[in-house]
Specification:
Number of strands: 3
Oligomer: single chain
Distance between the termini: 53 Å
Structural class: alpha+beta
Order of helices and strands: HEHEE
Length: 103
Amino acid sequence: MIRDLYNVRPVGDGGGTTPLTPDEERRVRRTLFTELGNELADRGRVSYPAHTPPERLRLIEVGRALSEHWGIPVTVEPEDEVRMRLFLPGEVGGEGERTGIGA
């Protein structure tokens, strides 16, 4: 069944996502730090969606923060066009075993 939608118009300028406030950004990074850190501790690797450059940069920063916190390198690299992979030394990332952020 097809429904006709009356009086439906786009909201705003259609410019995509709305940037996060500084407080929202801190909360997102804190949550990613906890959730991805727990997954890394359990499995040694984790994959997470990152569709935009700011989302990718956020995951790189979370990887750096985890490296600082644990004192061991966390590698962050693209898995494909829409996902980033974080992994610990000795875990196979993309093209073999690598260590260090962005290595």
